[in-house]
Specification:
It is globular, with a radius of gyration of 19 Å. It has one domain: Rhopdopsin 7-helix transmembrane proteins (Up-down Bundle). By secondary structure, it is mainly alpha-helical. It has seven helices and two strands.
Length: about 230
Amino acid sequence: MDIATVQIGNLIIGEPMTSLTDIIIAVTSFVLFLRIRDRLNESYFYQSWRMFFLFMGISTSFGTFAHALNGSRAVELYTVLFQVMTICSSIAVFYALQATISFMAMRDDMRRMLHTLNVIILFIFIAYTIALGDFEIFKLHAGGALFIIFITHLIAMNRRHWGSGWIVSGMLLSFFTVYIHSIQFSFSQWFNYKDISHVMMVMSLICIYTGIKAMHDNLRLSVYRERMQRLL
């Protein structure tokens, strides 16, 4: 499929719809990042999700310019921007996994081991991205993380843990995002598989935020109930 372009004077912008949907993801991510910072407590679980939204915003900000340069003569700049975008996406995945590991019920020594393993895996994927400049490896990183997060919160949802259902919904949308991107399902060059994936990513981010906010609200309500019971 040919790359859609828009020409404004002497400026040629590649993949304009993809760049636009990248901007929408970035704005959504930064807004959710700020909402967690301002409204939710300072536990490692919530702050890890906050950093997830931050790096998603940074990643798609670089993606905006990378996609705009796609097909241009600035091949080296495009390659650098695309690599930075992919690395930031891997860091976002890393923080989502850190939050999930913190959420799991396990011994402290096991949790520390998994946190360390997550750091090692992140550096492996970053090194691979820098060495080969291959976006496909990020799909492997993201797919594995999505599966772990999905299973963790599916179990929690079945145990009626407040908010986990929203995160499960967000992960399901993310699975479809990876699938659509992999099979390159497109409506046209003006709304291709990248654009469809980006729209679904926005929906996924909102679901994830809704889930962690519900967890926070339920925790605050539980603390309030406990205090009331003590007073009674």
